[in-house]
Design brief:
Elements: E1 3-7, H1 11-23, E2 27-31, H2 34-43, E3 48-52, E4 54-55, E5 58-59, H3 60-70, E6 75-80, H4 85-92, E7 98-101, H5 106-120
Parallel strand pairs: 1-2, 1-3, 3-6, 6-7
Antiparallel strand pairs: 4-5
Length: about 120
């Protein structure tokens, strides 16, 4: 079981993602903004972050870069509706980060999370 933080400004997507991962035995938390996620991570240890790329208060990939500067081995999954070339290049610089395209199925989510956790261990 892993502790997973889901960061997505679309509440329904964030809660559905959390429910899917909870069904698989993981402990989950949801943040609806990057500011909220930064605050959460200051107080709580997590094993993996599942983050949307486009958020109202910033870019999820940039957020991961900053977070991994403090927690280099943190597992991560980037969720996107459309991966632009510039974003793909940024993701490629973050070793072990998995990419998940929206919309996604439970199996795809679990595969990416497990892949990120395995790469981080």
């Amino acid at each position: 079981m892993a502790r997973i933080l889901i960061v997505d400004d679309e509440k329904n997507i964030a809660e559905t993602t959390a429910a899917m991962l909870t069904q698989c035995g993981h402990e989950t938390a949801v943040c609806l903004s990057l500011a909220e996620a930064h605050e959460y991570l200051r107080a709580t240890e997590v094993d993996c972050v599942v983050v949307d790329v486009v958020l109202p208060d910033g870019n999820g990939v940039d957020f991961l870069g900053a977070v991994r500067g403090q927690r280099p081995g943190l597992a991560a999954v980037v969720v996107t509706g459309h991966l632009m070339a510039a974003t793909a290049e940024k993701v490629a610089l973050l070793p072990g980060v998995q990419v998940l395209d929206k919309p996604f199925r439970l199996r795809e989510l679990v595969e990416r999370v497990e892949g990120a956790l395995n790469a981080a261990s």
